[in-house]
Design goal:
8 strands, Lipocalin, globular, 4 helices, HslJ-like_sf, alpha+beta, eight-stranded antiparallel beta sheet, single chain
Length: 150
């Protein structure tokens, strides 16, 4: 009887340990993920006013689960839905790739066109408080604020 009880408890305990380790293996960098996995509103970019960006609902969404160190993101700049793959490194570098969008024609698409062209050039990122800042090699920036904070 003791042997059966010990065997059952061993199997249950092993199952618990395996479940814990498999959950943790899906998280690449918990602190980084917690900072980045948000929806971000665009508040400073080029010569565009904050009011113009807010009226268009300009934002990116990085809430998808990190897979193989990458986050599938989406963006909206007032007309089309955009999508991209982002890879955030611990050293502050970022790689934005696989950018695409829907193909609706809208009256004012300048912000969307500029954003789509420049997003792929962003090389570094920084999270400062509730802000996410992308910077390219020429010092051009895109600044976002966490949507759940403002």
């Amino acid at each position: 009887m003791k042997t059966i009880l010990v065997s059952i408890l061993s199997v249950l305990f092993s199952g618990i340990l395996l479940n814990c380790s498999s959950v943790n293996s899906n998280i690449s960098h918990p602190d980084q993920d917690a900072q980045l996995h948000r929806e971000w509103m665009l508040v400073a970019y080029g010569n565009y006013s904050k009011a113009d960006m807010m009226s268009k609902g300009a934002r990116i969404n990085l809430t998808e689960k990190t897979e193989n160190g990458k986050i599938r993101g989406t963006a909206f700049m007032g007309c089309n839905s955009m999508f991209f793959t982002s890879e955030f490194k611990n050293d502050g570098n970022v790689k934005i790739s696989e950018i695409g969008s829907t193909l609706k024609a809208c009256q004012d698409m300048k912000l969307e066109m500029d954003f789509g062209k420049e997003l792929r050039n962003m090389k570094t990122y920084a999270v400062k408080g509730h802000s996410l800042i992308f910077t390219d090699d020429q010092g051009h920036t895109m600044e976002f604020i966490a949507a759940d904070w403002d």
